[in-house]
Structures are given as C-alpha cells and as structure tokens.
Hints:
Pfam families: Sulfotransfer_2 (PF03567). One of its GO terms (molecular function) is sulfotransferase activity. Belongs to the sulfotransferase 2 family. Keywords: Carbohydrate metabolism, Glycoprotein, Golgi apparatus, Membrane, Signal-anchor, Transferase, Transmembrane, Transmembrane helix. The protein is mainly alpha-helical. Among the domains are: 116-253 and 329-377, no CATH class; 255-320, no CATH class. Helices cover 50% and strands 5% of the residues. The chain contains 20 helices and six strands. The chain has helices spanning 2-29, 56-59, 63-73, 76-93, 102-105, 116-138, 180-191, 209-212, 224-228, 232-242, 252-264, 269-283, 293-298, 305-313, 315-320, 330-334, 350-360, 382-386, 391-407, 414-417, and strands spanning 162-165, 170-173, 195-196, 199-200, 244-249, 343-346. The chain has a four-stranded mixed beta sheet, sandwiched between helices. The longest helix has 28 residues, at 2-29.
Amino acid sequence: MTKARLLRLSVVLVSIFMILLIIVYWDNVGTAHFYLHTSFSRPHSPGAIPGITAGEDWEALPDVDEFLAKLLSSSLKQNSSVSQKTEQLLVQSSGKPVVSNLEENVRGYDWSTHNARNSLDQEKLQIERQRTLREFCANSSFTFPTKERSFDDIPNYELNHLIVDDRHGIIYCYVPKVACTNWKRVMIVLSESLLDQGVPYRNPLDIPREHVHNTSTHLTFNKFWRRYGKFSRHLMKIKLKKYTKFLFVRDPFVRLISAFRSKFELENEEFYRRFAIPMLKLYSNHTNLPTSVSEAFGAGLKVSFSDFIQYLLDPRTEKMAPFNEHWRQVYRLCHPCQIDYDFIGKLETLDEDAAYLLQLLKVDRLLRFPPSYRNRTASSWEDDWFAKIPLAWRQQLYKLYEADFVLFGYPKPENLLKD
Length: 419
C-alpha cells in the first residue's frame, strides 16, 4: 500500500511541476503577440492559420522547433481581435502626420504619392536586388570575412540590429545612416513598444529621437537569451522562417561621408571623446586637446575627412574594438548571407521603397513612412570629398567595403579608384 501511495504522490508532484513549467514558459511566450498576417513572400493556403502551416518549410525542423512553433501559434486567435481593435484606432488617427520634433521642422519634406506603375517597377527592382544578393552569397569565388559561417555561428551580440515586431510578424535590420531613425519609429508604432501618457504612439514623427535610439525600446534578437533561455535560437529560426524580414542600404562611400558629417562636423560630445581625440592625436599630431567638444570646435580643432579615412584603414582600429555601427559594414550588421531577407530597400529610392514595403506589409492604412529629407548627402558629392584622399587609400577603402558594394548592387566607383 505504501508503494502505491508513493507512486501516486510522485505522479501528482510531477504533474504539478509540469503545469508550473508550462505556466512559466507561457508567461514568457504568451506576451509575444504573434500576429503573422504580413509575410508576403510566403503566401498561406486558404483556410490555414497565418502562423504555423504544414509544408516543406517545416518538415526539416527539429522536434523542439516544431513544438515551439505550434505552441506559439496558439496565441494567434487571442491576439487577432486585440490587433484589429488597435488597427481601427490607428486608422482613425492616421493621415498626414503632424511634424513635432525640431529636427523634422527644419528639414524639407516630400509628401509625394505613389501610383500603380511604381508598384510594378518596385516588384521588378526587388526581384533584381534579391537575385544579386543571393547569387553573390552563393558564389564561392567571391569571399569576405564571416561569409561562410552559419546563422548558429553568429554571436548574440552581433544580432543586436535585428528588431522584432511580433504583432505584425516583421523583422527589421537597421543600418545607421540609412533612415534608421524613422524606420525605428515605424517599428515602435507597429509593435506598440512605447507609450505616451499610457497610450501607444500613433504617429512616427511624434516619437522623440532620444527614445527612438534607446535600446530598451526595441525587442532585438540579442535580447532573446534573457527572455527565452536555451530556446532562444530555436525561436529566432522560427521567426526568420515565418516573419517578413527587411533592411535598407546605401552607397557605402556616401554612407561614410554622411557618418563623418553627422558625428564629426557637428558637436557630439560622445564621438569627440571616444573617436575624435584619438584621431587628432594619431593622425594630426595634436597634444593637450580640450576635454569638451565645444572647446575643441572653438579652437578650430576638428577631425578632417582624411583623419577619418586613416582611422578606418588603420589595422589598430579593429584590434582595439569593432567598427562603430555608424561605419560598420552592412554585411557585419545584418548578415545578409545567413538571413534570407524578403525586402531590400535603398536610401536612393527611399520614398518609393518605403511606400511599397508598407503596402506589402499590409500596414499602409495604419501609418505613413516619414517623408525623406531633401538635403541628404548626395552621391554626386563623392568626387569632392575624396579629391584630397590619396589613391592608395581610396583603393584600400574600397576593399574594406567591397562586399557591401557587390552584395547590394552598387557599381564600383571606378572614377575614384583610378588616376
């Protein structure tokens, strides 16, 4: 009799433990708001739940991945009604955004509309951009650092640019100096990750810049370990398969010019202390530099574009620390050969690309992408900016950023690389 009681007691205790484990795990996962109605690259079959579907994409998944996928998809119905209500509210408040921030007030905006013809052109552009990327990722004769590693080989800290919106099933890899401030604002509105007096922001331009770039505002892949523990990689892979993934890129040399202008031609205390002081000492032979950027600017002590290029080419730079995100290569930020992006936007066609992407994501009725600046750094400036940079440096710089040029279809700047 004693053995039978012990057996029953053991069964009860194990059952209670399993229930508690499921409750704890569900508490973590249930807040994810899986609302996957936007994956335009992988259409769903009629009548299927827009989350976990049967098919060849899922046959290769390990058992634990399949279990997690099914578990996560069960929250769809609950979140669908909540999302529909939220969308109704967003529609009521949509329309032409009210420009509220000083930065946006002083810049000129283009509110032009986009017609059906543009959509047809956009579809062709996307096909070509994705084809170029995939061909060079598969080309064994074209090599660059980290190309051959798998997704599992990427450390978590290198996944901090992948922002996740579980409500709409979207993953955005942000690239600094490529309209990332406004795309982050869009992600905040869609994910409702930031509140204004208890209410989620509806208009992207209402969100202050200091909140936009606060890392606590966004759910990124590198945060998954703290939230999901040992299941984090499995969940990443599931989301990468089912969510719509996008990024925006820019001519690599023009992006460098833009980074230099914003971080070293304007007074920026952080970048002055972290980068400008070492550059001025190493490449301009300055000593006893002021401790504040305002004092330095007042004394006419500024980093030159030549100093900046020397810094990028200096082998000691990477040994000390990885490139800052504002001039780190896109292939190191977004891992385009390990992640199969569904949409590749370009700053050069930002207005058209953004309008088309929001339409494909089926969120264009909720918001509009903040219109582009008319005074952004132009590609035509390259010749002037690089005129005083020695030819050998320009050639080295191209090799440093060659992968970004090639993968994203930017022509080699031959005029800068020859006498």
